[in-house]
UniProtKB/TrEMBL annotation:
Origin species: Thermomonospora umbrina
Domain HTH merR-type stretches: 1-69
Record-given protein name: DNA-binding transcriptional MerR regulator
PANTHER family registered for this protein in UniProt: HTH MERR-TYPE DOMAIN-CONTAINING PROTEIN, REDOX-CYCLING DRUG-SENSING TRANSCRIPTIONAL ACTIVATOR SOXR
Coiled-coil region(s): none
PROSITE patterns: HTH_MERR_2
Amino acid sequence: MRIGELAALVGVSTRTVRHYHHLGLLPEPERLANGYREYRLRDAVALARVRRLAELGLSLDEIRDVLADDRGRELREVLLELDTDLARQQRAIEVRRERLAALLTEAELHPDSTVSPDMAELLRALPRAPPGSPGSTASCWP
């Protein structure tokens, strides 16, 4: 099959296939007498594997490392690291969403609402300057 057929079969562009060749992620197939690359089923499997690893979130450098290891141990390690990283990101998003939900429960939102509770407590404890004096602000602190 030709590069366009291979790309369509796996669901990538021909540019992606060429890029993977350039990076060494996909071996260059033999060329026919007319100069066209001749792809086989094994090339489609290799390309599908690269695509799947990329979809999982591995960088192209990580994919190259995984493909270089024949025993698959590296793949397991990389996937475990990816899973750990995704779990950390998910926890961080959950914390952010909890903070956002707390803000959205306030009846009235004002610019000071976005300050963390710890910072708000610290600011409330500061002595207030008389109105109109240097250092006074138009803060909404109670």
